[in-house]
What we know:
Layout: H1 5-8, H2 13-74, H3 78-82, H4 84-95, E1 101-108, E2 111-113, H5 130-139, E3 143-144, E4 148-149, E5 155-163, E6 174-181, H6 182-189, H7 192-197, E7 198-203, E8 209-213, E9 225-228, E10 237-242, H8 249-304, H9 306-332, H10 338-366, E11 374-376, H11 378-395, E12 398-404, E13 411-413, H12 415-432, E14 443-452, E15 455-461, H13 469-473, H14 490-500, E16 504-509, E17 515-522
Parallel strand pairs: 12-14
Antiparallel strand pairs: 1-2, 1-6, 3-5, 4-5, 5-6, 7-8, 7-10, 9-10, 11-13, 14-15, 15-17, 16-17
Amino acid sequence: MLSFAPLLDTHPRRHWLWWFPRLAFVLLLMAVGTQLWLSERADREEEQSTLISDILWLEQSLRFNLQHNEELLGHIQPGQLKDAQRFDAYAHILLANDTGLKNIAHLASGHPRTPSHRPPLPAGMMANLDDSLRLMHALHKPVYGPAFRDSGGEWLFTVLVPIQTPATQPGQPAAMMGIYSLTKMLDDVVPWWLAQRNHIGFTDLNGKTLVKRSRLETQTSNISHSLAFDPPGHGLSLWAAPIRPPVPLSGKILSATLVLLTGSLLWSLWAQRRHMRQRLEAEKQLRQQQERLQTSTRLIAMGEMASSLAHEINQPLAAISSYTTGSINLIDTGKTDLAEIRQVLNRVQEQSQRAGHIIRRIYEFMRRSEPKIEPCDIGSLIHEVADLVGIDAQRHRICIQRDIATDLPIIQGDKTLLRQALFNLLRNGIDAMRGMPTRGRGCALDIRAYREGDLLRIDIRDQGPGISPEHAKHLFDPFFTTKPEGLGIGLNICRSVVEAHRGQLSHAPNPQGGTVFSLSLPIHSPSPRTSP
């Protein structure tokens, strides 16, 4: 069925309905994106907060171990220094505390002394301790040295703790030295649960990682945090970054499913949009074709009535010519009876108005105009169309009888389309009664318009041969006709127009012979719609 919605439904609010689904979809995407962003931001903030808490706890633990070892190194007893066995036992206990200490040494008169069960100090280490020894003597407090690498590639740092012994001479400070291994410190102090969720390491001034520890070798998060490690200082920093565990297979499947569903939704919306555009374009072409067909039917109908219309128009023109000639003759004879001349001129005016009325009806019927919704007086439309087809009806000796209620309400609709539908129905009734034998008073085409509840009904009764059951099934099909010269689009257009105005068009046998076409239109119609 042809669609009249693009023609009839011109309310500005309807345009908003086209944009509302798009706006809702954009808002949905924005809401989902915002929710994901907020969730990711909350996770990152929580991850950052947890990371800072972990590294602060670790820094406090390392600081506590260093300070505890300073106290133990500074409170060594003189007897433990003199007795090698007691010194070895003291060193064994100190090195077994899992605090990162790799070795200790007693420095007196510039000569280091290490436990017997530990290797001696690397050659050349003492040459690098002069500055630290002088600083310790000046401050009389523990002093840490910078990090360095030994011959085996291990990163170490030292602490010098001043001690007082009877053998100490002025200007020759005695000290206990602790040698820490950065790797051993991380292995001893960092608990398993902290290493399981974070990468822990030490970095230098340039941010280069010297050592690192983690239980899981996975991708490092882009979130990290570092603290200056003082003591021992000298550019050493404690660094940590959360571990991002690998995404499980179920999570990957869920993410892939969400991406696939989102892509499918976008594709379906795009396909639906393309389908709607194609449908609208097709409806536009059908509408243009229908307008051309409507114009063609009007031209054909007017061609059939041309002789009758010419006769109808010729009568007022001939009368005007006759009255004008008579007036001129009166003037030429010298008779100047103004009353008689006025009477003749009034008759000329009546005949000219009659001719103009006929021409105006033909023009309004034939012209093509853009459909629009406006108040329609159905009674006036019926009289106008009946007068137009009445010329052809008289030629075929068919009487048009009108029974139009005087209290018909004004409805909203398109006058041009409704006029076309009424014209087609009346023309069909006249065509059905052509050549029928007269019955009593002759053939009559009855038109009745009345109100029935919330409906405005129009019944058109002809006294033709009627419609057979076989033809009734296809009566409203496009291009189906029982006339040899018919196009088969008149009734199809009529039903499309009526349904576009939210009405119905039906037919039934006339008890007096012929067919009754019934047209019903809602009185309080919001706006015409697309016909099914």
